[in-house]
Amino acid sequence: MAKWLVKSEPFKYSWDDMVRDGTTHWDGVRNYQALNNMKAMKNGDLAFFYHSNEGKEIVGIVEIVKEFYPDPHDERSGLVDVKANKAVPTPVTLKAIKADESLHDIALVRQSRLSVMPIDDESWDKLSKMGGL
Q1: Which residues does 73 contact at the CB level (< 8 Å), separation at least 6?
Q2: Which pLDDT tens digit goes with each residue over 33-58?
């Protein structure tokens, strides 16, 4: 099972919105690299839910429940469906992530504008521990 991080601006779609909806499609991605990451997602994969712009922190975990499919409203994009899995008891801030040398190579630090990115198992475990999981 692969692990990921997906970003959303909380004023557009927050963790609270995700919890309320239960399941939703992940849309609005046009970056080629981010789309390729979405195409690699498989059912059962997990992803950190990250609030970008405001908060800049990991706040929850979602599960991939439907693999990549075309976006009927945007031919340059695609979708995956995600389901709320659990909240992170202690949100993990970007500041805390950048302060940990063992996390300097993750895409969140190296490619800060990428909206969908892989997270290696070691970094996933570290971030989960930082978040109280």
Answers
A1: 27
A2: 999 999 999 999 999 999 998 899 99
